[in-house]
Amino acid sequence: MNEKDITELTELLATPKKIAIIPHRSPDGDAMGSTLGLYHFLLKLNHQPVVISPNNFPNFLDWLPASETVLVYENEKDKVAKILNEQEIIFTLDFNALHRTGEMENVLNKLTAPMVMIDHHQLPDTYAKYTYSDTGFGSTCEMVYNFIGFLNQKTLIDKTIATCLYTGILTDSGGFRYPKTTGTTHRIAAEFIDLEIDNSEIPTLLFDNNSYDRLQLLGRALQNMKVIPELKTAYISLSQQELDEFNYVKGDTEGIVNYGLTIKGIVFAAIFIENRDEKIVKISFRSQGTFDVNQFAREHFSGGGHINAAGGKSEDTLTNTIKKFETIISKITI
């Protein structure tokens, strides 16, 4: 973020304002951690912030401080649209194109309030007046920490803010294992631990809070895994019928795609999840090394993300989507 933008934002935030903070649709730990971390920070500056999620967030994130205050656009469209139109500043976190908010894009496109983008994905759109975009960071939460520093307000970071930001750093770094985890990332985490966040309990809340149904769904997903050793690829599929059989709730499939990469020799992993309500197949891609799943998702499945983690979708059937995937990977070098 350049000095001019920092100066203007410092002036904008010098007096109390109504501020909306928005994550992407189907928010993950980084999206919710960054938005709620910024929410608590702006409260300390005497603003009137509100976090507005395009749709519901997973249950395993409902312990985050102030998660109960989050408004969900899909649940109250007219009410939330009215609130959005009353805001003086709009922060968009962990995404860089308004279509990532789903139907809420139609409302956001009509707003006149200045927008601030904080994001670490590739190829940002130009909708924001103020843009802090850097693919070098492993999480948006780490960027929010820096943003607070740009405003010379790091002394306001307390245990509550740190808990939110640590959550996003932990989840988007794969437990500090992914390549974009730097020494600085660890130093920030150490600062948060010094603020007495519960760094032993947070991973338990995020990763070990399973239901019996979720474990049964995981078992089915692993049974469905197909491994193609010669293409260094493994993929999983889950039909709507299988989701229903195990009483699926949002968040139950989080992280399952990563199991493919735990197999020796596998570089590319995918999961295909049928969603009859939305009439699409949701897809997650993961890779190791230099294979670019962001480019793969953009070219073939209307998606995008990072080099090693991306998402996409298909409006075809689950069977046809998988056939298309198999055809594509048989023609490329992984």
Walk me through what this model shows.
The two termini are 35 Å apart. Helix 2 (29-44) runs parallel beside helix 5 (140-150), helix 2 runs antiparallel to helix 6 (159-172) and helix 5 (140-150) packs antiparallel against helix 6. With 334 residues, the chain is α/β, with parallel strands linked by helices. Strand 1 (18-22), helix 2 and strand 2 form a beta-alpha-beta unit. It has helices at residues 3-12, 29-44, 77-85, 105-108, 140-150, 159-172, 183-194, 201-207, 212-224, 240-245, 293-300, 318-329, and strands at 18-22, 48-53, 71-72, 89-93, 115-119, 130-133, 226-228, 233-238, 268-275, 280-287, 304-305, 309-314. It has 2 domains: 3-206, Alpha-Beta Complex (inorganic pyrophosphatase (n-terminal core)), CATH 3.90.1640.10; 212-329, Diaminopimelate Epimerase, Chain A, domain 1 (Roll). The longest helix has 16 residues, at 29-44.
For the record, the count of structural domains works out to 2
Tell the overall outline: globular
Which regions contain 5 or more consecutive residues with pLDDT less than 50?
A: none
What top-tier CATH class of the largest domain fits best?
A: Alpha Beta
Any idea what the radius of gyration is?
20 Å
Distance between the termini: 35 Å
What's the CATH H-level homologous superfamily of the largest domain?
Answer: inorganic pyrophosphatase (n-terminal core)
The CATH topology of the largest domain is inorganic pyrophosphatase (n-terminal core)
SSE ordering: HEHEEHEHEEHHHHHEEHEEHEEH
Q: Given the structure, what is the number of helices?
A: 12
> What is the helical fraction, as a range of percent?
25-40%
| CATH architecture heading of the largest domain | Alpha-Beta Complex
What strand line-up does the widest sheet have? 3-2-1-4-5-6
Mean pLDDT: 96
Structural class estimated from helices and strands? alpha/beta
Strand content: 15-25%
Main sheet summary: 6 strands, parallel
